[in-house]
Design goal:
The complex is a heterodimer of chains A (180) and B (135). With 180 residues, chain A is an all-alpha fold. Chain A has helices spanning 2-12, 17-40, 43-60, 70-92, 97-106, 118-128, 132-143, 148-155, 159-179. Chain A is globular and about 60 Å long. Classes of the chains: A mainly alpha (180), B mainly alpha (135).
C-alpha cells in the first residue's frame, strides 16, 4: 500500500509524471486489453477503448482520492468505457446491446485476432446468452481470474452477490453447452 | 445429453489475441495521445516597455485624427442659378402662392434684385406652358 501511495505521488508530480505514467501504461496494457476485449470483442474497438481509458486515467489522476486501490479505479474506468462504447455502437446502429454482441460473435470465426476452437466459440455464445452483469462477473472471474474482492471494488457489488451471480452464470453456461 | 462441467476441466481460454508487436508500440502511442500539459502563458503585452505602448498609442491617435479630419468635408452649397432652376422645375408653388407669402417689402426687394427676366425667356415660357390668352 505504501508502494502504491509512493507511485501515486510520482504520478501527480509534474516532474516525474511522464515516467510514472509510462510505467502505468506498460504495467496495465495487457490485463486491460484482455478485460476490454472480453467486453467489446473486436480488436480495433478494443484498441480505441484502451487508449481512451488511459487518457481518462491521465486526465482524472488529480481527482483520484485513494479511497480504492489504483488497480480497481483503473479497471472501473476501463469497464465504464467499454460498456459505454457498446451502448453507443448499439445506439448508432439502432439495435440493442445484445444484438451488437451477437453481430460481433458471428464475425468471430473470420476474426484474424481470434484463435479459438469450436468449444471456445460455443463458450462465447453461451456467455452472450447471459444478462449483461452476469456476463461481466463471469468473464472477470473465469477468464481474467480476478479476486471477488477486487471485482467487488470495480463493480461496486457485494462479494456475496458476485458469488451468487457467478454460480448462476456457470449453471446457465453448462446448460447452454450441453443443449447446443 | 452431454454432461459438460466448467469446473471439472482446466479453464478454457477466451481465444482473443492481439496482433504481433501490438503492445511494443502501445506505450508510445498512448503517451502521444495524452492531452498536452498546461503551460503557464506569459502575456506578451507584459514584456513590452512603456515607451513602445506609448508610441503605439500616439500613432493610433494621430492616424485616427487624420481620418476624422479627412471625413469632415465642407458641404457643397448650391448657387443661385441652381436654386432658381430647382424652384422652376420641381416646385408646385404658383406665383399666386408666392404673392400671398411675400410682403410688399419683399416684392420691392425682388424687383430691385439682380434677377431679371428678359422678353425672350417670357416668350419661351408662355409657348411651352401652352397658355391661351382668350380662354
Amino acid at each position: 500500500m505504501q508502494d502504491e501511495k509512493a507511485f501515486i505521488a510520482l504520478l501527480l508530480n509534474t516532474k516525474t509524471q511522464d515516467t510514472a505514467f509510462r510505467q502505468l501504461v506498460s504495467q496495465y496494457s495487457r490485463p486491460l486489453y484482455n478485460h476490454i476485449r472480453n467486453i467489446v470483442v473486436d480488436h480495433d474497438d478494443t484498441d480505441d477503448v484502451l487508449q481512451n481509458t488511459f487518457i481518462k486515467v491521465f486526465q482524472n489522476l488529480k481527482n483520484f482520492k485513494g479511497e480504492s486501490k489504483l488497480f480497481s479505479w483503473i479497471y472501473r474506468i476501463a469497464t465504464n468505457e467499454a460498456l459505454t462504447f457498446v451502448s453507443s455502437k448499439a445506439k448508432k446502429g439502432n439495435i440493442t446491446n445484445e444484438e451488437v454482441q451477437q453481430k460481433a460473435l458471428k464475425n468471430l470465426e473470420a476474426d484474424e485476432y481470434f484463435e479459438g476452437d469450436e468449444m471456445q466459440i460455443k463458450l462465447q455464445q453461451a456467455i452472450a446468452s447471459l444478462p449483461e452483469k452476469q456476463q461481466l462477473v463471469f468473464k472477470m472471474k473465469y477468464f481474467e481470474d480476478l479476486k471477488y474482492e477486487d471485482i467487488s471494488e470495480i463493480l461496486g457489488t457485494s462479494v456475496g452477490a458476485l458469488k451468487a451471480s457467478y454460480h448462476h452464470a456457470v449453471k446457465k453456461i453448462e446448460d447452454f453447452i450441453n443443449t447446443h | 445429453m452431454n454432461d459438460f462441467k466448467l469446473d471439472s476441466r482446466p479453464n478454457i481460454k477466451s481465444g482473443f489475441i492481439a496482433p504481433d508487436g501490438y503492445f511494443d508500440g502501445l506505450t508510445d502511442k498512448v503517451m502521444l495521445s495524452l492531452p498536452l500539459k498546461e503551460v503557464k502563458v506569459v502575456p506578451l503585452y507584459k514584456r513590452r516597455p512603456v515607451w513602445v505602448t506609448s508610441a503605439a498609442a500616439a500613432f493610433v491617435l494621430s492616424f485616427s485624427l487624420l481620418i476624422t479630419k479627412k471625413e469632415a468635408v465642407k458641404p457643397v452649397m448650391p448657387d443661385n442659378k441652381a436654386i432658381e432652376k430647382y424652384v422652376v422645375s420641381n416646385s408646385n408653388i404658383s406665383s399666386y402662392d408666392l404673392l400671398q407669402n411675400l410682403s410688399e417689402k419683399d416684392l420691392r426687394e425682388l424687383q430691385e434684385s439682380a434677377i431679371t427676366v428678359d422678353d425672350e425667356s417670357i416668350e419661351n415660357y408662355l409657348s411651352n406652358e401652352d397658355v391661351h390668352l382668350y380662354q
